[in-house]
Amino acid sequence: MSANDDFMEQYPEIPGAKKAPLGEKCIAFYKYDGSNLRWEWSRKRGWHKFGTRTELFSPEHPLWGQAVPLWEQIADDVEKRVRSNGFREIERITAFTEFFGPSSFAGTHVQDEPKELRLIDVYLFKKGIMPPRWFVNTFGDAPYAAQVVYQGNLNKEFIHDVHAGKYPVWEGVVAKGEDFRVKIKTEAYMLRLKEVYGLNWERFAE
């Protein structure tokens, strides 16, 4: 695998709970507190390109390069699961992961800590991001995939319960439906942002 300057699919921005379509069915996934990294596969070149949310990087990068061997451990399984679940002739796949360690917080990391990757979404060329039910059907038993926290109505009670820390999450959840994604964060996490970043905490809240 190697990085180059070609176009690479970017992960979409996800709005906060204020934009939640109340009453819609959703699957809510654990929101890991790390950095979004993406990985591209093509039929001709295999897994050959990788980047952060905004730019590509090489395996020699002192921080992001730590994710490359972690990705290589799961890359073949990701491809196999996608292609065996009705997409054998797919031309290109972009996998989106969260990269984090024990002390990662709001996109910052401790250089020498061990890290892990969690698969959070998969983009299929000319088809878009895999709907949440497809994702669960394809990766639900994979230990590297985002954990499902809740399935049901996206209502005020659920949002309140996430805010109040009634679910076993730290930063919060990402609730996904057929045509929407919203972030719901815990009050404890928001308080920690205020403690660490002071007046600038809102830059990291969404």
Overview of this structure, please?
31% of the residues are buried. It contains five helices and nine strands; from the N terminus they run βββαβββαβαββαα. It is an alpha+beta fold and 206 residues long. The chain has one domain: D-amino Acid Aminotransferase, Chain A, domain 1. Strand 8 and strand 9 form a beta hairpin. It is globular and about 45 Å long. The strands form two sheets. A five-stranded antiparallel beta sheet has the order 3-2-4-5-6, with helices on one face. Strands 7-1-8-9 form a four-stranded antiparallel beta sheet, sandwiched between helices.
Number of helices: 5
Please compute the radius of gyration using only Cα atoms: 17 Å
Q: How many distinct folded domains?
A: 1
What characteristic shape results from the CA principal axes? globular
Distance between the termini: 32 Å
Write down the overall mean pLDDT.
93
CATH architecture level-2 label: 2-Layer Sandwich
Q: Helix/strand-derived class?
A: alpha+beta
State the major sheet: 5 strands, antiparallel
Q: Would you list the SSEs in sequence order as H and E? A: EEEHEEEHEHEEHH
What is the third-level CATH name, the topology?
Answer: D-amino Acid Aminotransferase, Chain A, domain 1
User: Spans of 5+ residues with little confidence (pLDDT < 50)?
Assistant: 1-5
Question: Strand arrangement, largest sheet?
Answer: 3-2-4-5-6
Assign the CATH superfamily: DNA ligase/mRNA capping enzyme
CATH class: Alpha Beta
Tally the beta strands: 9
